[in-house]
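Our preliminary data section would be incomplete without showing what the modeling component actually yields. Below, a chain of 440 amino acids is followed by its predicted structure, encoded as tokens that our downstream tools consume directly.
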Amino acid sequence: MKTLIFIILILTNSAYAASKIPTWGQQAINVKGAWDIAGAAAQGKGAKILNIDTGVDTSVKLIGRFFKQGKSMRIAPVLGLPYDYYDESGHGTAIAGILAGIAPKSELYVARIDQGVTLQDVITDIQKAVEWGKATKVQVINIELALTNEELKDLDTRSLDQSLRSAFEQGIVIVAPSGNNDVPTMSYPANSPWVLSVGEVDIFNQRNFGQYGPILAVVAPGESITTSYPVGKARDAQVEFNFGTSKLSVKSMGYVRSPFVKRFYGSVMLAGMGTKDDFNNFESSSLALVKRAPRKIISVQSQIENALRANASGLLICNSEPILSTKFASLKDPETKVPVVYLDRFRCEAVWKTLDQGQAAKVKLQITPGNLVSFSGTSGSSAFVAGTAALMYAAAPRIRPVAVMKFLQQTATPISSTKHEYGSGLINAAKAVKRAMDLE
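Predicted structure:
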């Protein structure tokens, strides 16, 4: 859905095992410290979270352990019954995985709101979801929606605004992403006075695409966060480069809508940044190895299209950053016609140098079903804050939304900026939980 903005990369199964191996995001906000402080209420025990998103796959073990109830906000026209809450996109399951990694002993409620409807229908369904959250007495609502001012201009949000206010007054903290458009304005509903707005930072505490401005409250990890995905719908990849006398084998990542490949064996050629000109002398049926370029120069989609025009048998993309990232596609989107795989920067640089020196190589490629992804987007950042709010409620059940929002901002680690890029700073779960417990 257009308004649910996100980017996802795929990781191998060995990279992550439930919440036992912390992601860099959990470490960055000191989740373990929060658990250690909370005692009997550790890991969110006693708190309820409502995630308003694209649904969830409860067969994911990490999620199934803390899932309580799911509900679609859309009624099927034939039988007059609600649609299922199963996640047909992948976004909701990825967000639920982040929440489970922070507050695994809380109770998760899921409202699905994305079944092929208009933006006005989305607003109506979110309003219904907020009311459902009030009725089930959740303490935290995470709304995965980021509407631009342009999208808002023809929409009536009065009923939703009223529900947001009444939920806040009832004692519910509401969290929403600032948006991913890299502009100095908040998306809706993050710009609501009843909602805590959340921006993103990467592993270096740098903002990359999150929206910002004077009303941004805090930031949280928002790039390459390891999390769950609908079972068997991710793409694990195994790539082996054979240079004759030497081999390099890499467990890697496939584009989420890449076809599965039992076994491919063929040649590989360099194709620069993957522009049309870079494919001028390309040999048909070879694998193309291209460098990941900034989106302002060329998009991944354009690289794929150019590879197809050159009759490449597949596309290997070298990442330019220390942490891998790849273009996300909804599970409803069609598969690409050729396999697309991402390679980590350091191994790819070695392969690139060897090929650039004129040495030929053959490649073995296999793409198999996977269960895990690494998420990038302010939606993920919002989940980190919502999960931390649940830890605060579990540790201090009588705390009110105003105090939760205040303590999250007061205990955040400041990040220097002259453009209001980071709000009060990067949240610190341990310090926020400690402040909440001191209030009790």
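Residues 1-21 have pLDDT under 50 and may be disordered. The domain at 7-228+376-439 is CATH 3.40.50.200 (Rossmann fold). Preliminary results of this kind motivate Aim 1 of the renewal.
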